[in-house]
Design brief:
Blueprint lengths: L4 E5 L3 H13 L3 E5 L2 H11 L3 E5 L11 H7 L4 E6 L4 H10 L3 E4 L4 H12 L4 E3 L12 H8 L4 H12 L3 H8 L3 H15 L4 H10 L6 H27 L2
Parallel strand pairs: 1-2, 1-3, 3-4, 4-5, 5-6
């Protein structure tokens, strides 16, 4: 891919200078900014291919600035760089319109690859696995996470449950393999899981693909079984 125009926003001067130097050496054209406001203004002026923005500035949250960046330049892809690996931050960034979220420990090669991928239209999430990725396995929490899935992502999740691979999913949905991979990555991120198998198992375990009517019927069935069991216990107790 030809060299891309970048805006790099970070308030850590040493990191900013070092990273911008390395990116220029790799053929990227880089404009630096040291505050969230300056980053937004640079995006407006430069109309870059990609904006790399720090998750935290001294007085601002980089995620809160994403919508303003996209309003300033609709052609620009936003890639969040962070020293945090919290799932809430990733979800907030993606919901705000970010094309990716990359942990700062991943290195320059991973960053260059992430830039290329977001320019191809993919969603990139590359953060360390942590114990906080899915803190709860309660059904209510599972359905809350699933509520962030788009209609197409729910279709892809259903095909994962059926065991289809990327090529088969692309054929089924009449889309490219790249589009399928983008949807799958979004599913993994939003559900807080790390593999397609884990996503499929999570969906089946908590009935994420059932409609509200099916969930209500299953709940009523479970209640009937519970009441029947209690009635049987009560009857048995009278005969003791």
């Amino acid at each position: 891919m030809s060299a891309a125009d970048l805006v790099l926003g970070d308030d850590h001067t040493v990191f900013l200078d070092a990273l911008s130097t390395v990116l220029v050496q790799r053929g990227f054209r880089v404009k630096v900014a040291r505050t969230a406001a300056e980053t937004i203004e640079s995006v407006r002026e430069q109309q870059p291919d990609v904006c790399l923005i720090d998750r935290h500035f001294a007085d601002d949250d980089g995620v809160d600035a994403i919508a303003k960046m996209l309003a300033a330049s609709s052609r620009t892809k936003v890639l969040v760089l962070s020293a945090d690996a919290d799932n809430d931050g990733v979800l907030r960034a993606l919901r705000a319109g970010a094309a990716g979220y990359l942990h700062k420990t991943r290195g320059v090669s991973a960053l260059a690859a992430a830039i290329d991928r977001v320019l191809r239209g993919e969603v990139v999430v590359n953060v360390p696995k942590t114990a906080t990725v899915r803190q709860s396995t309660r059904g209510d929490d599972a359905h809350r996470l699933a509520s962030y899935l788009t209609g197409r992502e729910r279709q892809c999740l259903g095909l994962l449950v059926e065991g289809l691979d990327t090529a088969a999913m692309a054929t089924k949905l009449h889309v490219s393999r790249t589009t399928v991979r983008t949807h799958v990555q979004a599913i993994l991120t939003k559900l807080g899981v790390h593999s397609r198998l884990e996503a499929a198992s999570f969906a089946v375990r908590y009935g994420l693909l059932e409609d509200d009517g099916a969930r209500a019927r299953r709940t009523r069935s479970s209640l009937r079984r519970l009441f029947s069991a209690l009635a049987a216990l009560a009857t048995a107790a009278r005969w003791v």
